[in-house]
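Quick one before lunch.
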Amino acid sequence: MMQDNGRPGPKTPVTFKILRYKPGAIDPPRYDTFQVEADPLMTVLDALEEIRAAHDSTLAYRHSCHHASCGTCAMKVNGREVLACVTKVLEQDSAEIVVEPLGTMPLVADLVVDMGDFARRYEPAGLSLLRPSEYLPQAQTPAGVAEYTRFESCIECGICLSACPVANTNANFIGPAGLAAWYRSWQKEDNPWAKVMAAVDSDCGVWGCHGAMECTAACPSQVAPGDLIMYLRREVVKSKLPWQRAM
Ligand code: FES
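Model of the FE2/S2 (inorganic) cluster complex:
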């Protein structure tokens, strides 16, 4: 049954098919179907909140900021990894929206995955958040603030890991975010080259990447991890050439 959600603007009926499953539960995986009246501003996260409030309070999903900053609402919408909080329902141009959890990482319940797998691959680079190379000299700062500091763009949403065809089949592959972090940590001189080489010069590192660039295409934060993997691969090759610098 559809309910008026009280939001302004014309409404378009949309069917949501949501994958439901909790590992270890008796019930096998299934798709539950819900009808939602979508207005032009409604996001997929808005729709999930409406479904949870009006139809099924057991639906599990994660969110926090509602503005593409925290990375917690990442999921698959019609087969594509997105941030649900900034993905407009009607912009999917489909009367049916299929919502599923991210891939690669273990499922916790419904649309929630265990991000520990993402952290396991990403954290060894030890990347700090500051990115001092991105100071904007033209920026106007408030009184008492000398300059703004640019932070790393990665919001650790896990979308790149889910979209990566290699990570989906190789649990030991460092993955897009992890390899991008190793490259950034070397650029920033947080990690010496010998440490970076020891971490990435293998089939579970830069040589495991197939160059599909699904990670760069899916990244909602313009980190372009696939590009950074290619830069890192180039540095690995250069460092092995006898006439190149000693690192
Ligand atoms: S809720 Fe924070 S990124 Fe979507």
